[in-house]
Write a structure and sequence with these properties.
globular; MCC; MATH domain and coiled-coil domain-containing protein
Length: 75
């Protein structure tokens, strides 16, 4: 139950204010809870928003788009 409460607390924060570790942890916790049988459809919109932010940002603060643009310029 603590895992669910922690996930709710994490997802209630602004996605921009979450660290990469918190974003990754939220995804893992969501998966673990749904595999255990919890019905968390009501949390999916929040998790999707966090996941999108996670995909957009890299640990060094750059964006995926910047990385892709750099790779394209190499070709």
């Amino acid at each position: 139950m603590d895992l669910l409460l922690g996930l709710i607390e994490t997802l209630s924060k602004s996605p921009q204010n979450l660290s990469v570790a918190e974003r990754s942890s939220a995804q893992s916790q969501f998966t673990e809870l749904t595999e255990a049988g919890f019905k968390l459809d009501w949390l999916k919109p929040n998790l999707k928003e966090v996941s999108l932010e996670r995909k957009k940002a890299l640990p060094d603060g750059s964006s995926v788009q910047e990385l892709e643009d750099g790779l394209i310029s190499w070709n």
